[in-house]
Design brief:
about 475 residues, alpha/beta, six-stranded parallel sheet, three-stranded antiparallel sheet
Length: about 475
């Protein structure tokens, strides 16, 4: 047993917060640890605390549970801080991020992590994340910040460049790559692919089927991927049992596969020679060929927008389910199957001096990808151990792909600099370099509209 203190910020979330809590409490290695739950919504905090205390007893986790409405109360003596915060209302703001550029003729393909929407989304979240990081510096400077907040690359970059806090970003998107490999190599691998797995897009109609194929493929094959978050590329593909190189077979099978399945991924794979991992809906955010208002490539590639209204309703349902679990009106058995998406594995191995290879970690580049900027946040395989979270060097990316990645890194760093400094000129430069923007005047109009619309969330741009 390796008891430690873990602070979970945004613990009232019915998705990341609940999954993280359940997996921490299930961990035999963390028996006896202290979990400090933080949520600024007192109602959500009360519910998640009641549920945590119930699970602590039912699963005999032997943990200390404390509840806090501000992270500063929870941080003393913390060794790990898990953050999944999001400026609310999540779906309504995301929809607004998409709709504002539409007024000026800019139709974004997704608007979450890249494009103008990526700027607005990151700018809103950077201030509250840095507030947490500054307090970690003063209160528990040796703690590791485990970040789930998007846009992942930009949030981690803000912490890495503007504080001394150690940060790692964790994301499950490599699972989309495993799902696509499992679907295409189903006969070779012996995977039964459900008929309703027909997209990697995060939609309720396909999520369960896609995740089932992804988990099965992870058991059978190993993918080595690298790049930046939501924009990674498959460098190698091997069968776990035999070590056989399956990339040639995958290329052959993919070329013969239904061309309607992930058509944008198909075109990019053909053009650049490496398979893009994230699936069409995330891949499209970083490419300059999917936003033309005349040719409407989003129709050709059948790119779907996020289902904002449905997801908002599901978020409300998730909160209701959490409340019913806390009250004993709904079984907690499903929580025995959820995954932390890496937080528990990081904590177990760092606190317990273990060693574990992990498919994807977001870290400052320390030569892991030598032809990308040093210090830029990259996503690479990692080693989790008592020495910390270390990236695995993957060598240089093909030059054409490296240039796409360098552009996104530059856009991301400009976004962070603009948000931290409240600098409108840097914000304009960020949008002018973004592949979605093609006009100087439009870039200025979008920046001005975003800053005015989100004035309450972006105080640094409005200080005298």
């Amino acid at each position: 047993m390796i008891p430690t203190k873990i602070v979970c910020i945004g613990a009232g979330s019915a998705s990341f917060g609940l999954n993280t809590l359940a997996t921490l409490l299930r961990s035999p290695k963390l028996h006896g640890s202290h979990i400090a739950l933080v949520d600024r919504n007192p109602g959500a905090l009360r519910i998640v605390t009641e549920l945590a205390e119930n699970l602590n007893l039912e699963w005999d986790a032997g943990m200390t549970i404390s509840a806090h409405t501000h992270h500063l109360e929870a941080l003393p003596e913390a060794e790990f801080v898990v953050s999944a915060i999001e400026v609310p209302p999540r779906e309504a703001l995301w929809k607004s991020d998409y709709e504002i550029p539409l007024k000026y003729g800019v139709r974004q393909p997704y608007a979450e992590n890249g494009g103008p929407g990526g700027f607005a989304h990151a700018a809103r979240n950077i201030d509250p994340v840095l507030e947490i990081a500054y307090d970690i510096e003063q209160t528990c400077p040796d703690a590791l910040l485990i970040n789930y907040t998007n846009p992942m690359q930009r949030i981690c970059d803000a912490v890495a460049r503007y504080t001394s806090v150690k940060v790692v970003g964790l994301c499950h998107q490599i699972g989309a790559g495993y799902a696509m490999v499992g679907k295409v190599l189903d006969e070779y691998l012996g995977i039964d692919v459900p008929a309703d797995f027909n997209t990697t897009h995060s939609t309720p109609r396909a999520n369960a089927a896609r995740e089932n194929v992804s988990r099965r493929a992870m058991e059978l094959v190993d993918i080595k991927a690298a790049g930046v978050n939501h924009f990674t590329w498959m460098l190698a593909l091997h069968e776990r049992a035999t070590g056989k190189d399956l990339y040639p077979l995958f290329r052959e099978q993919w070329a013969a596969y239904d061309p309607k399945f992930e058509p944008l991924t198909r075109r990019v794979f053909n053009a650049f020679g490496l398979f893009p991992i994230p699936g069409d809906e995330h891949l499209c955010e970083y490419l300059p060929w999917v936003s033309d208002p005349l040719t409407k490539p989003w129709e050709k590639y059948e790119l779907e927008l996020y289902e904002w209204d449905l997801r908002a309703a599901m978020r409300a349902t998730g909160r209701e389910d959490m409340q019913r679990m806390a009250a004993g009106e709904l079984s907690v058995e499903p929580l025995l199957e959820v995954h932390s998406e890496g937080a528990v594995e990081v904590i177990e191995n760092l606190a317990g001096d273990g060693t574990l290879y992990w498919d994807a970690v977001n870290l400052p580049n320390q030569g892991y990808i030598p032809n990308l900027p040093e210090g830029a946040i990259v996503e690479v395989p990692g080693l989790l151990s008592g020495a910390g979270v270390l990236g695995v060097g993957v060598g240089p990316m093909p030059e054409a792909i490296a240039e796409l990645l360098r552009r996104e890194i530059t856009v991301s760093q400009l976004c962070v600099d603009a948000a931290v400094k409240g600098d409108r000129q840097i914000a304009l430069q960020c949008l002018l370099l973004d592949p979605v923007i093609t006009d100087l005047d439009v870039a200025q109009q979008v920046v001005d509209d975003y800053l005015l619309t989100y004035k309450e969330y972006l105080p640094s741009f409005w200080e005298d």
